[in-house]
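Troubleshooting log. The previous structure file for this entry was overwritten by mistake, so regenerating from the original sequence record. Sequence copied from the archived sheet and checked twice against the printout by T.R.
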Amino acid sequence: MAVSNFTEVIVFVLSGFSNHPELQVGLFLMFFFIYLVTVLGNLGLIVLIRIDSQLHTPMYFFLSNLAFIDIFYSSTVTPKALVNFQSTQKTISFVGCFVQMYFFVGLVCSECFLLGSMAYDRYVAICNPLLYSVVMSQRVCNWLGTIPYMIGFTNSLISICVISSLAFCDSSINHFFCDTTALLALSCVDAFSTEMVIYVLAGFTLLSSLLIITVTYIAIVAAILRIRSAAGRQKAFSTCASHLMGVTIFYGSLIFTYLQPDNTASLTQAQVASVFYTIVIPMLNPLIYSLRNKDVKNALLRVIHKKLLS
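Regenerated output below.
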């Protein structure tokens, strides 16, 4: 019988980007600026939706949930990364690592299914506009807003349980945060069954949420094509263009990050790609959903006008 040759790991080292010390200050400034814009942009969107009564609709209910997720899943990664860019040790405790991974995985999975809820909302608005307020009742919206969190954090809990039970031979995580694939690479025991669980959970999250969005958009496109006037088709398409753009960017970066072969060059590419979906996309979402949205721009003008007159 082989004797286990490992010691208990109590501290991990986040070594992502550490082989480029000349970039640490630049990375710190970039991450700090993007994080600041992310928090202010998403928080501002939540406050605007909250205080403007004309934005109290299902579409903006889901959008405020998306902004909430973007703030907090970016916050699980960025503050620790900022500290590490200014530190020589770049350590994170065993418990802290798994807490970070629990919230990050849970919130990212929640966003996948929340995007599905948003797609369904657009489907009802375009395909059944006369019944929209009846179908998208407050109770339905609450369920469509809650279920993504339930699925996401159940997924995350299972992932944490199976990965934390592994024995780790090394404490150096080749990433700037505690990611599932980076931790699996440190296992010194056969992790095949654990990897299968993680892949099944990830596959279920990506495929099922993408299936919901794809089927929904097929129905939306079919409904738009039945509209006779070009102006009507343009107006219908504009109501879901921002969501479609957000879905494409989010899923595109996820797929590019995790469908990489296991080699050094790909690991470096995966780190760069993960910066995009962990740091950049939460910053872009408020811009994507508000810059081309007349309701949001008009609501902002009303708030500014009201403040100026008060």
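The CA atoms of residues 49 and 55 lie 5 Å apart. Archived copy saved in two places this time.
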